[in-house]
Design goal:
- The chain is mostly beta strands.
- The chain contains three helices and 34 strands.
- It has a five-stranded mixed sheet, with no helix packed on it.
- The relative contact order is 0.14.
């Protein structure tokens, strides 16, 4: 599978004051800023997956979970596959979003999504729903393995079908098979927006998007990418960033940057939001290795589809080729840059990882710090500093106490000064990291692809507090909520307290 989500500035505090999440974690990363930090305290410093010490519960994820757990209103949501079928009505390879009871990990309901079929690169076999859901009130927003943005009722079908979407049976039944009748443990789809038909995007491997909610808007990356040749963009005109009406799923806005032809692999980075000098801005990293800032949409939903107003664009790799980028496929020394992690808005700056691709690009990569106040009319914000990483990086930065924690594909965790970009320390965590480090309770938690899990003191002096190894790969980001640490491997979700 080829993919892969505190000290706040005054600007961030203005945004965060609008909604208090208490101890839940209803979105991947901090609301708006996307910072990979949590206010949770009392989290475990040691545990043992083998003996069960400090393991509150664990639940099977089948064997293809690349998602990150989300916790809200007594439920835990995570993408999975159907290799460990939880319901005999649903058999065979499927993408699944699980809704588990927070107390004991038992199944509340599940969204089961058949494969697209035909071309494996449209919907990679065996893996689960890779996108981390976003929960607000009684609604769950997630992107399925079929590139659909769906709004779900948090109660599933147990309390009836809310509509207006009522064709759940057809949706969860593979093409050509007899309709599967719905039951109380099936998801209740409120509305559905198919990005393949709605904006003409072309999926690659599997969609990876985390919906950002701002008022009545849903902002998300389109996941447009290359085809199975890895050298052709089938939908060059499709937008890379879109906004939907959260109540109806109607398309409200899209970018007009013409990013499509410059996408080297896929559009897997989700947007962030921040307030810069009283102006709300959307920060978005395209599949072309460029970080963009757009003006956030007005409070009232427009009548027609808008084009985002660009405020600035920042070339994370200005010396990289910008045309005919796929000529550099499999070139590990030179070529275009990609961005897979999310941008983080912190202290009027944007922190982002950019550089080589996992399989198809060059090795060089960087952690960049961009001054978000320097866009101006020229549209060229200032780079505060650039820090070199080894190989690619899928990480979204975690910033706390003036420190930036980020991991790379070589298997290093880096602790970098947020102001200067100077390294305080690095550590080899054992294998490539496809998720992001989480900073919470004075600790930095990070999992690796060989199952290694490390806990460090979140300090400028390196202190490895604890290390252990799970039985399977870790590809997502740890989550902290309600005094519990959640770690997902490919095959199991662990609740640790």
């Amino acid at each position: 599978m080829r993919i892969v989500g505190k000290l706040c500035s005054a600007a961030v505090i203005v945004l965060a004051a609008e909604v208090v999440f208490a101890a839940d974690q209803p979105q991947w990363g901090e609301r708006y800023s996307r910072n990979m930090v949590s206010n949770e305290t009392g989290l475990p410093a040691t545990f043992d997956p083998a003996s069960g010490a400090h393991i509150l519960w664990s639940a099977s994820l089948g064997g293809g979970s690349y998602s990150t757990p989300i916790v809200a209103n007594g439920k835990v949501y995570i993408g999975s596959n159907n290799s460990d079928a939880r319901d005999p009505r649903h058999s065979g390879d499927r993408g699944v979003l699980l809704c588990l009871n927070e107390q004991d990990g038992t199944l509340a309901w599940q969204l089961v999504v058949p494969r697209i079929g035909g071309d494996d690169y449209l919907d990679w076999p065996g893996i689960g729903v890779c996108s981390a859901p976003t929960v607000e009130g009684d609604r769950v927003y997630v992107v399925t393995n079929r590139s659909e943005v769906v709004c779900l009722d948090v109660n599933g079908l147990a309390n009836g079908n809310d509509g207006p979407y009522t064709d759940e049976s057809r949706h969860m039944t593979p093409e050509g098979q007899a309709l599967i009748e719905t039951g109380p443990t099936d998801a209740d789809i409120v509305w559905l927006f198919d990005m393949r038909t709605g904006i003409g995007m072309y999926p690659h491997d599997s969609p990876h998007a985390s919906v950002l909610i701002d008022g009545d808007y849903l902002y998300l990356n389109s996941c447009n990418g290359v085809d199975n040749t890895h050298i052709k963009i089938r939908s060059p005109e499709a937008p890379s960033l879109i906004a939907l009406d959260k109540k109806t799923g109607k398309l409200v806005a899209k970018d007009g940057e013409g990013i499509g032809p410059r996408i080297f692999h896929c559009t897997w980075s989700s947007p962030a939001l921040g307030d810069v000098g009283g102006q709300r801005e959307i920060f978005f990293c395209g599949g072309d290795g460029v970080c963009y800032a757009f003006k956030a949409l007005p409070a009232s939903i427009p009548d027609s589809v808008q084009v985002f107003e660009r405020l600035w664009r920042f070339e994370c790799d200005p010396d990289a080729p910008k045309e005919e980028v796929h000529r550099y496929s499999k070139n590990t020394k030179e070529g275009p840059s990609v961005i897979m992690g999310m941008p983080v808005f912190y202290g009027n700056r944007v922190y982002v990882t950019a550089g080589g691709d996992i399989w198809w690009g060059k090795y060089r990569a960087w952690l960049k710090c961009i001054d978000a106040t320097q866009g101006g009319e020229a549209g060229k914000p200032a780079e505060r500093w650039s820090y070199p990483l080894e190989r690619y990086s899928c990480s979204t930065p975690a910033i706390a106490n003036g420190l930036v924690f980020v991991a790379d594909g070589k298997g290093n965790l880096h602790c970098v000064d947020a102001e200067t970009g100077q390294a305080h320390w690095t550590h080899d965590v054992g294998n490539a990291v496809w998720g992001s480090p989480l900073v919470a309770d004075g600790k930095a938690y990070v999992g690796a692809r060989n199952g290694a899990f490390n806990i460090f003191a979140a300090d400028k002096v390196k202190n490895l507090v604890f290390t252990t190894t799970f039985d399977d790969e870790i590809s997502g980001t740890p989550t902290a909520a309600n005094g519990v640490l959640y770690v997902a491997t490919l095959s199991r979700l662990y609740a640790i307290r």
